[in-house]
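Support case: flavin-adenine dinucleotide complex. Customer-provided input:
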Amino acid sequence: MRTFDYARAETTGQAVSSADNSAFLAGGTNLLDLVKIDIMRPDTVVDINRLPLKTIERMPDGRLKIGALVSNTTLAHDPIVRSDYAVLSEALLSGASTQLRNKATTAGNLMQRVRCPYFRDGVSACNKRDPGSGCSAIGGFNRSVHAVLGTSDKCIASHPSDMCVAMAAIGAGIVVSGPEGERTIDFLDFHLLPGDSPEQEHALKPNELITHVILDAPIRGNRSHYLKLRDRASYQFALASSGVIVATSGGVVQDARIALGGVGTKPWRASRAEQSLRGKAPTQANFEEAARIAFEDAKAYKHNAFKIPLGQQAIVRSLTTVIA
Ligand SMILES: Cc1cc2nc3c(=O)[nH]c(=O)nc-3n(C[C@H](O)[C@H](O)[C@H](O)COP(=O)(O)OP(=O)(O)OC[C@H]3O[C@@H](n4cnc5c(N)ncnc54)[C@H](O)[C@@H]3O)c2cc1C
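Agent response - structure generated as follows:
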């Protein structure tokens, strides 16, 4: 059995001055899983649950400031989130199970690790777990939790989060505090593509703590929706998902946001597809064209080619739902 030290941070300052190779403990639903199966091996687990990071507040400029320790359940049911960011509420409620959502936190969800079985089995070649060892998924069974967008010849694991797809569509800043002070990372720059170094998954520096996520102000008059397609109706990660936000005026699309889950190696913002819709009528043909553009750069592997038409259908259906 591998042992680790347990420490409890009473202040942000204490948390960010933790020893090397420590891990923050929030809800523990991902960290403790991975410690138990020996994939994450922190020397110290730093419990951050006493930090005052559990509030949701509307800022004077209309943005929404969410504490890192706000649970997925609290966030999904928050009245402002339900009314102004429906896509986020729906995405959160499509994830995991009620019990898990009660424990899972906003920052923990952002930081959750991939579900690739070759990463999690602890023995297969996996560049993410053991850099330079190879990627068993590329020549192996790569159907459900493997991506078609943003992959590299080092890693094809899809990003597992539903919440992050909605946040990618909304736009957000991630506020972090570290030994060198506070900074804000744009949401779209937070998760990294695997490239040649899939072990680097995010833009946090050592010992940096996420303190808040600040959502952009809602688009005036928007309607939004999160559609998750999966092998079974609950307790399952997305094969493909689509989070869309649309505002129309005078019979044309004024603004459109499209983000995808289950198909990308990071929460995937389909910017070119969004651009193709602006100023156009919200028709089935235009939605299909946006969906085609979203997957222009997709690369399928042996078992997951079906994700391209599935992801395209998710886009068309979610857009159709918000326009109906
Ligand atoms: C059976 C099962 C099914 C699931 N299904 C889904 C699903 O359908 N959709 C989905 O999106 N998710 C799903 N999940 C994942 C779940 O959402 C995550 O486990 C959860 O969001 C992680 O949050 P946590 O607070 O428990 O994080 P923890 O386990 O406490 O931490 C996770 C990681 O985040 C780091 N961390 C935590 N807080 C901070 C912070 N403030 N700053 C910096 N780093 C931090 C930790 O050190 C750790 O590395 C599922 C999980 C399980 C076990």
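The longest strand covers residues 240-249.

Case will auto-close in a few days if no follow-up is received.
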